[in-house]
Specification:
The chain has 18 helices and 18 strands. By secondary structure, it is α/β, with parallel strands linked by helices. Helix 5 packs parallel to helix 13. The structure holds pyridoxal-5'-phosphate (PLP). The site of pyridoxal-5'-phosphate has 15 residues, from helix 6 and strand 11.
Length: about 425
Amino acid sequence: MEEKYGHTLVVKAIRSSLDQARQEHLQEGSAVPDLASILIVAEGLLSSWLKPTLFQVLNATGVIVHTNLGRAPLSEGALEVVRRVGKNYSTLEFDLESGGRGSRLIHAESLFQQLLGVESALVVNNNASAVLLMLTVLTKGKKVIISRSQLVEIGGGFRIPEVLRHSGTDLVEVGTTNKVHLFDYERAFNKETIAVMRAHSSNYSIVGFTSEPDIKDIIKSAHKAGLWFFDDLGSGALLDTSPFGLKHEPMVQESLAAGADLVCFSGDKLLGGPQAGIILGSKELIDQLKVHPLARAIRADKMALAALSATLDHYIKEEALEKVPVWQMISASVEKIKSRAEKWQKTLQLGEVAESESMVGGGSLPGETLPTWVLTVEVDHPQKLLADLREGSPAIIGRIENDRVIFDPRTILPQSDIDFIKVFKQTWSQYEK
Ligand SMILES: *Cc1c(COP(=O)(O)O)cnc(C)c1O
């Protein structure tokens, strides 16, 4: 026991076990347990105290960017660089040429410059902190205009209006929930307004009698009045989603081409990289962000910078569809998915293969689905099957649709099919008895 858990913790566990026995004896008159029983209880405590909480699962939900399941899985290329940078010393803040101090801010910046032709880039801890940084540094004490249709709450309690307030920025709401016109923005321009902000309505869509002016027109108008335009894109797609039967997700390139002064987005949504907040655009503005103390507090770590750089490399080499897992999943052919579902069904000898829908998730393309094929299993207690599969190693996460348990191959990388089948078989064997 000591070898596995260390002396101090073992002593603590044995004391707890003894305390428990004492309590039970005094209060309930239970027999005094023997040494073996005391040790068994102690070992149980130790394993429950140290039970890992963060580990691999197999995502069979069909939701590609699943925030609860860690958003984007990283590419092999990204993992390789993370491993090398993590295991060894690196050039994180070291300039090889001069042999002196360098800046961690350069790492992904040059790649963004090459890939998107931007003047400047800054990578921080996540997109929530990117938004907070932009507003705190550039608009504190001033007024920022935002449409009422964009006062969004993203998961985890991140609300655009509250972040604005938190940064000391005054919010000027314009338009209505469903409609905002260019004149709504223009009427709000005055000496105190300093910027227009757009927050991509990530996780919901307003349908029906709706309209928003073209972003190009808002930007033109804002610039004419001397205001900046900041675009919080959220998912940060660098590739077009529409060839895959999805609605077009606003792309980073489009906001930049439209003239946004700053664009920000997450690293681990549709970019398909590590957790990060990425700010692109005007050098003059980004230079101000870089030197602010808040930027230091929310800086990106070396593992994230390594993974992000390697992920961007896939885009530069135009191999993102084949190498970046979220794009592999978005672009996976329906026939291939169907044949994998059939293979699961054949190997496991259970359930049926049926048509269903996968989702992009991660607060992008709400309500949009991709056609898929799934393994569906009919059991008396669907929740119980899901719970049993969650105890597998790795755990399988499925979902219930019309009282059937369904498993979507789209969100499991083909090389994990073996694990899926192994865990499913083990779990299912209890059902066959
Ligand atoms: C997801 C999202 C955020 C928050 O990004 P994190 O990387 O999770 O911090 C902010 N704004 C929008 C529009 C988003 O979709």
